[in-house]
Amino acid sequence: MENNIIENFKNFILSKYKNSQEEDLKVLFEGFGHHITEDDVTDYDFSMLVNSYPNSKSDVYQKNFQKLDSLYRIILNSCKPTQNNGDNTSFTRMKTTALRILETYNIARNEGIADLYLKTEAIPSNWFTNNKYWLNYSIDNIKNNLKIKIISDSNLKKIQSRELKTPLRMSSRVKIEESVNQGRLMSTKMIKSTTAIPNLSLKYCIVDIDRKWLTTSLFTYFKNWYVPKKRKGAFSIDSIDFQYIPVAMIVIRKLQINAAWSKEDLQNISKAVSIGPFSLIKSEWSNNGTRLQNENTQIIGWICSKLPQIPPQSDPSLSPNNI
């Protein structure tokens, strides 16, 4: 595999995250980083932000049309054991417990009972403000495969308008979920950087996504169930494409890129939204114009875990030609 800035950082993040369970993991970066403030990490805002799963065919994180909690409800409510035996008794017991857990975490926002959501927790909960969770990453003299990303002036103003809102706008604040989703839909013109980069450094934080309402053993342990009128793997293909689930959020701040920038790159950076996945919104120059830096906190990617085929079995009532 080619050793470059993007691949090196991906491999670094995975090496810090992988655990003894040997999960099948991959990193998906955002098309460009999304700035996030402390106001954006309330229980509700975080729960809405991570209530999605990625398009498995995309090189960057593009969410599928279905909400994660809605799809999980559909699968959990409709799944049935394939046969009557001891294993299926365990499955039925697990399903009953999973349904009860699902309702336990279905809570209301402060605004009222009509606005229910499934609470998802960020681990650690104080990741934004506690410096001990922010670690250093630095890389020297590695191949620069970053692309400078330019969007239309109108879209750039949309992103900047959210950045420039004051604390007094709390009731009308654009939610982080909405802001991120809008950014994902913006088309970008990508121009390869022509500058050799002697050093790139940043602080990063890996934020675990704890969905206590989601019983993962339904997917990872039990293999003896089906969904009526569905064939094996029906939820893993086509438009549903339920193949990966985000398990952690990758956030950075204090980005610094030191280089003797080419004239072409300087011109393009002046109108760019990002370089690679790193946002350049509100970035600054220092060190006589050789250091490009952005102090702001930004979501740049997600660690995603591979799921087995869902459902694991076909509906026994389907004809062999449909299985």
How does this structure look, described?
The structure is a single chain. By secondary structure, this protein is an alpha+beta fold. It has one domain (24-314). 25% of the residues lie in helices and 28% in strands. The protein contains 8 helices and 16 strands. The protein has helices at residues 5-17, 43-49, 68-78, 86-104, 153-164, 176-184, 217-220, 263-269; strands spanning 25-35, 80-81, 106-109, 112-118, 121-123, 135-140, 147-150, 189-192, 199-210, 225-226, 244-258, 274-275, 278-279, 284-286, 291-294, 298-306. Strands 1, 5, 6, 9, 11, 14, 15 and 16 form an 8-stranded antiparallel beta sheet that branches. A 4-stranded antiparallel beta sheet has the order 8-7-12-13, covered by helices on one side. Strands 2-10 form a two-stranded antiparallel sheet. Helix 2 (43-49) runs parallel beside helix 6 (176-184). The longest helix is centred in the N-terminal third of the chain and has 19 residues, at 86-104. It is elongated and about 75 Å long.
